[in-house]
Specification:
CATH topology of the largest domain: Rossmann fold
CATH architecture of the largest domain: 3-Layer(aba) Sandwich
Distance between the termini: 67 Å
Number of domains: 2
Order of helices and strands: EEHEHEEEHEEHEHEHEHHHEE
Strand order of the largest sheet: 1-2-11-10-3-4-8-7-9
Number of helices: 9
Shape: globular
Largest sheet: 9 strands, mixed
Oligomer: single chain
Number of strands: 13
Length: 315
């Protein structure tokens, strides 16, 4: 690994809790095992985290449209109880390094093996996190066209929250963000454009960062399975710091290259920004006697989100 690139690090070059708010700089990419690297980060550093871990699909489960997922430098094969405990350990380590009031967004899917269903809530409830919301990501495509079950086109994104004291609800989202609803519709990143076997589309981490951190202050964004670097790209383009971890040197270098060329992806960020708009808030509409409770789907040219009708009751 090329350590001369200042923001590229290796887990063996760091001491425990060496990475602090003051030493992160504009961002750090760290090659190493996720749990080992998380131990190098100080308490209460991260403001928001976003990730999609390997799903323990045993490198054999595939469908007509999607081949089996094989990662560089990692075997996605564990006994299921061991996998779930590993995820509990990782999530609890992230809880430690997340500042009170911070959030972690955990993308996973419901899986089946020999008729047994494995649901992410099986292990999420064993962590220290408060599960604030379950978001359904409608990916619009099915990875398998067999009929053992209705085709699975969705994955789940769990909004995990680290409370301040015993206040479990946390800060209210702004109307322009909350109106995007708990169902997010968008296809995955094309495998023809990204060589990683399971990359995020850029709009997904951008939506989270915009909604949670806003535009007023700089935050620190974590992805403990950084892969091709999409979370780091979103953080950089939105003016935030990032910490990305991966055991694959190839993926770390891929992320570094994308960060160098990140301005090429700025239009995707702007497209997401454009969705975070409202003409007036609920409070403003109510004060003017306008309608505050009717929703409909937009026209066919913009069917990604639901919008709030601005009907004026005085007309």
């Amino acid at each position: 690994m090329n350590i001369t690139k200042q923001h590229l690090l290796n887990e063996y070059s760091l001491d425990d809790k060496q990475l602090t708010q003051d030493t992160i700089g504009k961002g750090k990419l760290i090659e190493g095992d996720t749990l080992n690297v998380l131990a190098k980060i100080d308490d209460d550093v991260v403001n928001v985290g976003i990730t999609s871990p390997p799903y323990n699909k045993q490198e054999k489960n595939k469908g007509w449209l999607v081949t089996n997922v094989v990662y560089d430098a990692y075997k996605d094969v564990m006994p299921e109880p061991e996998y779930q405990q590993n995820q509990v350990n990782v999530l609890d380590a992230i809880y430690r390094i997340t500042a009170p009031g911070g959030s972690f967004f955990y993308n996973h899917k419901i899986r089946w093996d020999r008729g047994n269903m494995y649901h992410p809530m099986d292990w999420l409830r064993k962590t220290q996190w408060t599960v604030k919301q379950e978001i359904v990501w409608d990916r619009k495509i099915a990875g398998n066209i067999r009929g053992w079950r209705f085709w699975q086109v969705e994955e789940r994104i769990y909004w995990l929250y680290k409370p301040i004291g015993d206040h479990l609800v946390g800060k209210e989202l702004e109307s322009k963000d909350a109106k995007l609803t708990s169902i997010w519709r968008g296809v995955p990143e094309s495998g023809r454009k990204n060589p990683h076997p399971a990359p995020f589309p850029l709009w997904l981490p951008a939506r989270i960062i915009i909604s949670i951190l806003g535009e007023d202050s700089q935050g620190i964004v974590l992805d403990p399975y950084i892969g091709s670097g999409t979370t780091a790209i979103a953080a950089k383009l939105l003016g935030h710091k990032y910490i990305g971890i991966d055991r694959s040197e190839a993926y770390i270098n891929m992320t570094h290259d994308r960060l160098d060329k990140s301005q090429r992806e700025k239009d995707k960020i702007q497209k997401e920004f454009d969705l975070h708009q409202v003409e007036s808030t609920f409070k403003e509409r109510k004060s003017k006697g306008k309608n505050v409770g009717k929703y409909r789907y937009p026209d066919k040219d913009n069917e990604e989100q639901m919008i709030l009708l601005e009907t004026d009751n005085n007309k």
